[in-house]
Amino acid sequence: MKTQTSRRTLLKKGLGSAAAAIFLRAKTARSHNIKRYPNSCGVLVDMTRCIGCRSCEAACNAEQKLPSPALPFDDRSLFAQGRHGSKRRTDENHFTVINRYDPPEIDHPLFRKIQCNHCQEPACLSSCFVNAYTKTPEGAVIYNPDVCVGCRTCMIACPFYIPAFRYSSALHPQIVKCQFCYETRLKNNLLPACVEACPQEALLFGKREKLIKIARHRIRNDRDRYVDHIYGEYEAGGTSWLYLSSVEFDQVGFDTTIPHEPILNSVKNFLAMVPMVLTIWPPLFAGFHLLAARRARAEKTRQENNREKADEDV
Length: 314
What we know:
Alpha-Beta Plaits, three-stranded mixed β-sheet, 39% helix, alpha+beta, elongated, 8 helices, 9 strands, disordered N terminus
């Protein structure tokens, strides 16, 4: 009897544990609300290894044929300029930038690489009503300037404030951002230029799911070195660029308030209005302009007729 009771108890406990595990796993999946793309590639950025050499910037500059920077890539005075003020952002001349941070809890600086994070569920793509963006099977979010109408909705939608607008060309203004070296490297099974150029192996390229396992292994085996968080695993529904840090991410410029679900879920009602606004307002304003122009012509004609009549009376 005791054996039977013991077995029943163990069976109940086992079933209870299994049910709890299934419930927790389902709850976790629901709370993150992300899709899985097993073949998508990505980059793991280990900020504890980055020394701020800006080799990645130089490689990107050469690969994308961007203009030479105002300061050479080996001029570290650039970091001092933004140490206590605003940090550098990507723009038409810089598809990736390195910023320096000095967290108070450690005795050395940390360097953060910034570029398009190539989201799993890109808000830029979802918000673009002309389909100027494409998510490739390799994970890159690429942009087609020939389709873009310049509405800049993607700049509003992006939670990381990455897409920039090129104002320097009046004839060909367009959105600019990192393309993950897709055309020149990624689709030819080559490493992105910034990854290949990193001398410290702070950038690791590979399948995103495998990179997450590597990141978890590093955290698990060196808890004194890393905070227990992989930035980009869940943020905004997951990104192709993943980060490890030795301090909390808000201390190195990351937005830690971004929800763990695609941004479009939060802004889809607003973005749904964008095509309507872009469709209705231009012709509406054109109508206002034509009406005003017609009134101006009518008033000019009336004045001319009055002058002619006055001349006849004289």
